[in-house]
Amino acid sequence: xxxxxxxxxxxxxxxxxxxxxxxxxxxxxxxxxxxxxxxxxxxxxxxxxxxxxxxxxxxxxxxxxxxxxxxxxxxxxxxxxxxxxxxxxxxxxxxxxxxxxxxxxxxxxxxxxxxxxxxxxxxxxxxxxxxxxxxxxxxxxxxxxxxxxxxxxxxxxxxxxxxxxxxxxxxxxxxxxxxxxxxxxxxxxxxxxxxxxxxxxxxxxxxxxxxxxxxxxxxxxxxxxxxxxxxxxxxxxxxxxxxxxxxxxxxxxxxxxxxxxxxxxxxxxxxxxxxxxxxxxxxxxxxxxxxxxxxxxxxxxxxxxxxxxxxxxxxxxxxxxxxxxxxxxxxxxxxxxxxxxxxxxxxxxxxxxxxxxxxxxxxxxxxxxxxxxxxxxxxxxxxxxxxxxxxxxxxxxxxxxxxxxxxxxxxxxxxxxxxxxxxxxxxxxxxxxxxxxxxxxxxxxxxxxxxxxxxxxxxxxxxxxxxxxxxxxxxxxxxxxxxxxxxxxxxxxxxxxxxxxxxxxxxxxxxxxxxxxxxxxxxxxxxxxxxxxxxxxxxxxxxxxxxxxxxxxxxxxxxxxxxxxxxxxxxxxxxxxxxxxxxxxxxxxxxxxxxxxxxxxxxxxxxxxxxxxxxxxxxxxxxxxxxxxxxxxxxxxxxxxxxxxxxxxxxx
Amino acid sequence: xxxxxxxxxxxxxxxxxxxxxxxxxxxxxxxxxxxxxxxxxxxxxxxxxxxxxxxxxxxxxxxxxxxxxxxxxxxxxxxxxxxxxxxxxxxxxxxxxxxxxxxxxxxxxxxxxxxxxxxxxxxxxxxxxxxxxxxxxxxxxxxxxxxxxxxxxxxxxxxxxxxxxxxxxxxxxxxxxxxxxxxxxxxxxxxxxxxxxxxxxxxxxxxxxxxxxxxxxxxxxxxxxxxxxxxxxxxxxxxxxxxxxxxxxxxxxxxxxxxxxxxxxxxxxxxxxxxxxxxxxxxxxxxxxxxxxxxxxxxxxxxxxxxxx
Lengths: 652, 309
Fold this sequence. Notes:
The complex is a heterodimer.
Chain A: E1 3-8, H1 12-15, H2 20-28, E2 33-39, H3 45-58, E3 62-67, H4 70-83, E4 91-95, H5 97-101, H6 107-127, E5 135-137, E6 141-145, H7 149-160, E7 164-169, E8 183-184, E9 189-190, H8 191-204, E10 208-212, E11 214-222, E12 225-232, H9 247-251, E13 271-272, E14 284-285, H10 291-294, H11 300-304, E15 317-323, E16 325-328, E17 332-334, E18 351-353, H12 354-361, E19 382-389, H13 405-419, E20 424-429, H14 439-448, E21 453-456, E22 459-465, E23 468-475, E24 480-486, E25 488-493, E26 495-497, H15 501-508, E27 535-537, H16 547-565, E28 569-571, E29 577-579, H17 589-593, E30 599-604, E31 607-612, H18 622-626, E32 632-634, H19 639-650
Parallel strand pairs in A: 1-2, 1-3, 3-4, 6-7, 6-16, 7-10, 16-27, 18-25, 19-20, 19-25, 20-21
Antiparallel strand pairs in A: 5-28, 8-9, 11-12, 12-15, 13-14, 17-26, 22-23, 23-24, 29-32, 30-31
Helix pairs in contact in A: 2-6, 3-4, 6-19, 7-8, 7-16, 12-13, 13-14
Chain B: E1 5-8, H1 20-32, E2 35-38, H2 49-52, H3 56-72, E3 77-80, H4 83-98, H5 100-108, E4 119-122, H6 123-137, E5 142-143, E6 148-152, H7 161-164, H8 174-181, E7 185-186, H9 205-221, E8 226-229, H10 232-240, H11 242-249, E9 257-259, H12 260-267, E10 292-293, H13 296-308
Parallel strand pairs in B: 1-2, 3-4, 6-7, 6-8, 8-9
Antiparallel strand pairs in B: 5-10
Helix pairs in contact in B: 1-12, 3-4, 3-5, 4-5, 6-8, 9-11
């Protein structure tokens, strides 16, 4: 055995609190080690050249690098030893930076701990065996979950890149939150006018198939080969027949249905098409409000429908799709007003949310773009905007900034002045966060050209007095309390994780943070990847973000998918579980504990045994600790290899 | 019906002085509800504002002394009508229960150590949670037509939420429901938990004038002709100082401010004199002169309706 060890200084990151020369010196004494040195930056080009030269000069057959986390550079060094003719699994890494130098200040203790870490790595390297990857075919289709602006961008880019693309959208129409907005900051261009063409492109694209009003039911498989079950929720309307003429909606007597698209600003009909530009423009029955379902008789829509598309007996349908990659673009939700009792918890009709105000401003909204008070339909004169309604408030579990509220409130203040020149807007803010291109100029325009009065401070209470709503808050710049009698109050409620985000995360085996947003693989360097290969993120599902950022992420996720699926075959990681059929007693405990359904039952000459499906196994090792007779071993992490490390650690 | 209840009753200093009518009315109401109130022997100051403004340790020791007496009575619950007492008792208990060193320090000052086994509750909480609305409605004999009450909880009765552990800190409903249960009309009041100015009445009266004026104004705006309170200081600021408020703010408020227990007592058939209503500054005489007996049948039906609400 000829082991070579390279101890990295990582500048001062490691050498600052570890005596690297002594680690090398102690390492030289280990059996099997024929060469050990310390080096300034092992990951640098000369550092890697040094490793390659040493392998040739010293005839090394195992290499250990003691440096940073294997998550950073294991791939780099594996490639290096491979270029020098060694199998990449004969390389082993000791993490003496994240695990040692960065977390301890005692130089002596750190040096001792580093010596032990290297000793463990050497012991394991000696027992490492060459492993060879096998390759498997990939399915060149992609699934995009969510058809807001981020998901649509990802789908269009994937389809343009030649991939067959399947889009699943939870609501009856594509468009997401952006379809609800009136104008967009900082250019004040009409939201649906710039989104509409994308929506049309999406449904007309020859390589895109849309499942609207559908949700992902189940996901199985692995990168390159996912099997997805999609639940197409029942609409009680046969969409192959529905022409979107809207006669049913006109005649429907169920007039008090909750309008999801308009966020409850006004009621809609029990059978409805969500908005004029909806795509697909098809009707859906809301059985919660439909008389046919609540009272058992009505049938008006069925009678008036010219194409006989209504079917009250319709049921959910499950369809299966096989794809190679998945983009998750499920967007965000909004904090429930009930969580803000000091602002009335939704009890006051003239205290509304920012998204509801967008619908009031919008020409295709329930008031045809006229700003009126929900309570009495009169035009408001004094408006108050509260920019952090729940955001940055640890006490209600939203410690983060919702990212886009400062900007949309400035926009709404500008639009309000356009709609109602006699009105006066006040904006309560904690800080004005406007770091994007042209953003700060925009918030200044709201103040300087449109006369919005910005008050720095938080609102402590909103209460009704006569017909007015009194907004009571602090002005921290003047050091005083302020009370404004407003006709209409708009709360920029905090952006939250989309409802059901955690359930979808569990189906996809991806992680989410304490706030429910999906976690990217690396916050800086892998912003649209997840830790599950083949699953990517786009848009506000990963954290609140505005339209430009969402679109950028949609395109970024598409680029990742296109690069992944540009290959005909992917290499599998050989560090997976193997069953020693001779030792297996067929108890199949492993089958039950495997989180990836990677174990199947097999018949071996009349004996029941477990077998690993190599392409599905993720190498997590749960089965190896479950197996009562040690018949399953995880390659590269066998019992013998791990025990060798433990022995090396315990031997003083 | 539960067994006969008995509570250690820590009345605190106000209820022997300015808030004597809170005390007398609460005792009558508790009697009607079948609960006995036992005065802890040799109780002392709870350690509220004047004490904790000077020394937190000594303030906690004052509170713990009373809690230890209740422990000596073999009880784990203590009822106090005054939110200031409640806050002082709960604060001391909470800090001692969480912090062993502080507990030792406080107990070092006491003859009888406090073992942290007593939960202090407001009279409102005990009536709402232990008796419940159904029992609260049972003794009702009298209706007060025309009375429209704004329930005013004050700032500390159910705050801070982590300490108080009772009702909603921003929009409490317990007093609303109790008053509705005894057949009284309650208005939707937005200023339930706003500050009345509290103890600023002495050092800086204008604060009380300004803040209490808002409470009175909003109550009128909400359509109330009476305010119900659960705090001696709120009652004092809104009632005793109502004239001062009018003089300072140029207003002409004339709105009676009653303890919720006094309103309950009226519906249970006690006289205004028994309940101490005649001792208030702003007279409620005309307002409550509409009292009339409730028919048994109507009462049963009314109670049923209220539960549905």
